[in-house]
Amino acid sequence: MSETATMTPSLWTRLSNPGHFMRWSGKAVPWLTALSVAALAVGLYLTFFIVPPDYQQGETVRIMYIHVPAAWLGVFFYGAMSLSAIGTLVWRHPLADVSQRAAAPIGAAFTLVCLVTGSLWGKPMWGTYWVWDARLTSMLVLFLIYCGLIALWRTIEDPNRAARAVAILTLVGAVNLPIIKFSVNWWSTLHQPASILRMGGSTIDPSMLYPLLLMIGAATLGGSTLHLYAMRTEIMRRRVRTLTIREAERLDAGAVRVVPSAAGATPLPQAL
Amino acid sequence: MLDLGPHGGFIAAAYAFTALIMVGLVANAIRDRAAQRRALHRFGEDRR
């Protein structure tokens, strides 16, 4: 056992230590933000001024440059949340739940963008805003799962119990991810089959593919930066909760209030 | 001015909706951070 005590912690262990996390992420966020904005600016420039109109879709293809990155991030953040859920259930790592909680609204927002932009593309191209096609329906289910997880956090007051319940529900919902990916192969869908990640390579012309990949990269970088930022806020929220409880215990014990007024403070249920 | 063709309205609406959601997401993150920072400050702790 003494050998374990003298072991040097791995890079992952050091990075995921909450105190250490606050230090490195605090330095990284401004740089990542600048990089995301620059990548997004270049991506949007290419989308509107360099990418040619599609031979079938015409100019409407430009919606794809936000629809595809949004769809990818909706799925990406759910994947990240599923990994965090394992971290919560197996290792009970404090940052796992923080990561999961910070990711949920971001993933939900991107899934909503995917649904709405897809719908706005569908009307001129398919003649309808919505069909109960397997891909569209499974993306809608993903959005509803995100909403359910966010609601569950707000329902359970004790953060540790909430973390475990949410982690279990997240893993149950993860069954939807392969359904989303393979829905276009398993069922006859109006939604087109995979055109980027497919056997035999992409079917998209390089003049359209590279700007699309840049937009996907820029969105992933921006989304991840926002996730890091939200994780830092979540850690601060938990610190506030601990301090609030400690102060309440002190007051219960008859001590004099040191914190002047709670007016405007985050209400406890929201701080959980 | 960019000519977005006969379906320009759909393209503009898609980008406008995305911009709205993204601005909301970032603004909410900043507002939440400011609220937590203020709360920590009341306890005598300062974090960036």
TrEMBL record, chain A:
Keywords: Cell inner membrane, Cell membrane, Cytochrome c-type biogenesis, Membrane, Transmembrane, Transmembrane helix, Transport. Its main location: membrane. Residues 12-191 form the Cytochrome c assembly protein domain. InterPro entries: Cyt_c_assembly, Cyt_c_biogenesis_CcmC, Cyt_c_biogenesis_CcsA/CcmC. It is a multi-pass membrane protein. It is found in: Cell inner membrane; Membrane. Pfam families: Cytochrom_C_asm. The chain crosses the membrane at residues 28-51, 71-91, 103-122, 134-153, 165-188, 208-231. Belongs to the CcmC/CycZ/HelC family. Required for the export of heme to the periplasm for the biogenesis of c-type cytochromes. This is Heme exporter protein C. It comes from Methylobacterium persicinum.
From TrEMBL, chain B:
It is found in: Cell inner membrane. Keywords: Cell inner membrane, Cell membrane, Cytochrome c-type biogenesis, Membrane, Transmembrane, Transmembrane helix, Transport. Its main location: membrane. The chain crosses the membrane at residues 12-30. InterPro entries: Haem_export_protD_CcmD. It is a single-pass membrane protein. NCBIfam families: cytochro_ccmD. Belongs to the CcmD/CycX/HelD family. Required for the export of heme to the periplasm for the biogenesis of c-type cytochromes. This is Heme exporter protein D. It comes from Methylobacterium persicinum.
